[in-house]
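Worked example 3 (structure in, sequence out).
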């Protein structure tokens, strides 16, 4: 492992660890987002505060940190880009500043996917959006979007990218284990796009 790969991974992790949802919710006067709704720091839980603007900004920034991490890694080559791709998602999920208890990583993973293969990202994003709008289950949309991204990457990207994308998808799906259980039991909460 070269120094550039290690540096890319460290930078990616630190970028991923920035808890934009937590910071924006506090700045917006909503207190600690971890005490609201699901307790997650991502855009879906920020939406539960009633602020579409804050939720939208959280989504953009979480996607952005994934994309920026990969872009920085690309400057050092493919291996560094892939290392930063995995690290930024891990940083979001397990941030140093929050006792390694962070978000579920979907938006950050989407930012990574945009940089590694924007056509696959567009298709996976469309599946996520359609599922969210039709069912109002954010978790189901995340699961289907992540799975679709992994399958499409396997079909349309090179082996290294496909392996990394599939690995990230597995991480995202694993972080939704409680949501999967609630979906099966019929207890999963829905999101509203009309509030606020």
């Amino acid at each position: 492992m070269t120094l550039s790969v290690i540096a890319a991974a460290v930078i990616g992790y630190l970028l991923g660890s920035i808890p934009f949802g937590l910071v924006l919710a506090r700045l917006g006067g909503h207190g600690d987002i971890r005490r609201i709704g699901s307790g997650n720091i991502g855009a879906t839980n920020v939406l539960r505060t009633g602020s579409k603007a804050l939720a939208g900004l959280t989504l953009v920034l979480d996607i952005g940190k994934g994309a920026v991490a990969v872009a920085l890694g690309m400057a050092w080559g493919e291996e560094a880009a892939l290392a930063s791709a995995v690290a930024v998602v891990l940083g979001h999920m397990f941030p140093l500043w929050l006792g390694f208890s962070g978000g579920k990583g979907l938006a950050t993973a989407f930012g990574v996917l945009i940089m590694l293969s924007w056509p696959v990202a567009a298709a996976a994003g469309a599946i996520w959006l359609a599922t969210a709008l039709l069912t109002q289950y954010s978790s189901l949309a995340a699961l289907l979007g992540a799975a679709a991204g992994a399958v499409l990457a396997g079909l349309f990207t090179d082996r290294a990218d496909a392996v990394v994308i599939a690995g990230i998808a597995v991480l995202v799906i694993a972080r939704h284990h409680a949501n999967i259980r609630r979906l099966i039991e019929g207890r999963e909460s829905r999101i509203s796009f009309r509030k606020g």
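Notes: The chain has a mean pLDDT of 93. The chain has ten helices and no strands.
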